[in-house]
Amino acid sequence: MKTSPSIPIGDRLADLSEVIRLRLLRLLEAEELAVGEIAKIVQLPQSTVSRHLKQLADGGWVLRRAVGTATYYRVIEQDLAPALRALWSTVRAHLGDSPDWSEDSRRLASVIAERREDSLAFFGRLAGKWDDLRRSLFGHSFTAESLLALVPSNWVIADLGCGTGNGSECIAPYVKKVIAVDQSEQMLKAARKRLAGAKNVEWRIGSIEEPPLDAGEVDAAMCLLVLHHVEAPLAALAGIRRVLRRSNGGGTLVVVDMVEHDRAEYKHDLGHRHLGFSGERMLDMLAQAGFAGARFRELPSDPEGRGPGLFVATGRLKGD
User: Taking the domains of the chain in order of start, what are their residue ranges?
Assistant: First the structure.
């Protein structure tokens, strides 16, 4: 990996002139990664990643290691040529904070978690072929979907800001009724088409701030990727609390939304009112809105996802 001191300093600086190559060096200093894994993290085609990796390898910045058909790359600082080591140390110290760094670190953690799962699956196959057999017979999704049966079957659930009906589609087979609410006629039209065969879904037009529901009409409510569009989220949560009932074991609200982020362009391009919510803010709003036992948990990141991280927050009516 140590390069000849005859390489001009201008060439070395050129290697670091692209932000993507700086991102690659940061990642590879933290973990040895295959090209496909890197492409998932930085959200670029493998061909693009390979081109930048070749330049870094040719310049002596990264080590390559072949494992079967895969090639792994790594930065080991002490193995860098002295000039490269000094240059990288200086550049790294001045990188500062960037949304790219945060997103890369988040996706890196997900890739490593996937790798661990793959490793466990490999050793599971050595012990027996059950997982392979089960997947070949029944597919991948049945476990998560079947666990929805834990929701009481006599519940009425409000899907607030239902959009095109993804949430309603998931929960409708397991409950007595879903009341799907959206303020857009076009969204409701798309949702009706999607759930044309569902007999227990009722459609209502209205906003999340003032749900078109009677007081205590539903056992639970879900608010999936909607709250960041609402001007006054605390008032909306208080309005949702009004439509929940304590009887029948209900009184539960589930909110899924983005964790706090700094993608300001979402406000202009996508009409978002808020750049996500921190755990502290979300829990505080739920408490102020009259919910008890509030919980907040960040969801595992999907390396294929391009958006910020997500969370799920839950609360129950006080007094339950």
Answer: 9-112, 142-317
pLDDT for 244: 95
What is the CB neighbour count within 10 angstroms for residue 301? Answer: 19
Q: What is the pLDDT of residues 82-91, one digit of tens each?
A: 889 888 888 8
Other CB atoms within 10 A of residue 253 CB: 24
Q: How many whole angstroms from its chain centre is CA 100?
A: 15
What is the CATH topology of the domain spanning 142-317? Answer: Rossmann fold (3.40.50)
Q: Which CATH class is domain 9-112?
A: mainly alpha
Return mean pLDDT, the chain: 87
Give the model confidence (pLDDT) of 49-74 as tens digits. Answer: 999 999 999 999 999 988 778 888 99
SS (H, E, C) the chain: CCCCCCCCHHHHHHHCCCHHHHHHHHHHHHCCEEHHHHHHHHCCCHHHHHHHHHHHHHCCCCEEEEECCEEEEECCHHHCCHHHHHHHHHHHHCCCCCHHHHHHHHHHHHHHHHHHHHHHHHHHHHHCCHHHHHHHHHCCCHHHHHHHHHCCCCCEEEEECCCCCHHHHHHHHHCCEEEEEECCHHHHHHHHHHCCCCCCEEEEECCCCCCCCCCCCECEEEEECCHHHCCCHHHHHHHHHHHECCHHHCCEEEEEEEECCCCCHHHHHCCCCCCCECHHHHHHHHHHCCEEEEEEEECCCCCCCCCCCEEEEEEEECCC
Using the structure block, give the residue that is written with the tokens 């390396």: 303
Please check whether residue 242 is in contact with residue 254, taking contact to mean a CB–CB distance below 8 angstroms.
Answer: no
Return the closest-CA partner of residue 27 out of 121, 95, 118, 116: 95
7 vs 189, more confident: 189
What pTM value is reported for the model?
Answer: 0.65
CA atoms within 13 A on the CB side of 302: 6
- Cβ contact 35:67 at 8 Å: no
With 80 as the cut, is the pLDDT of residue 116 above it?
Answer: no
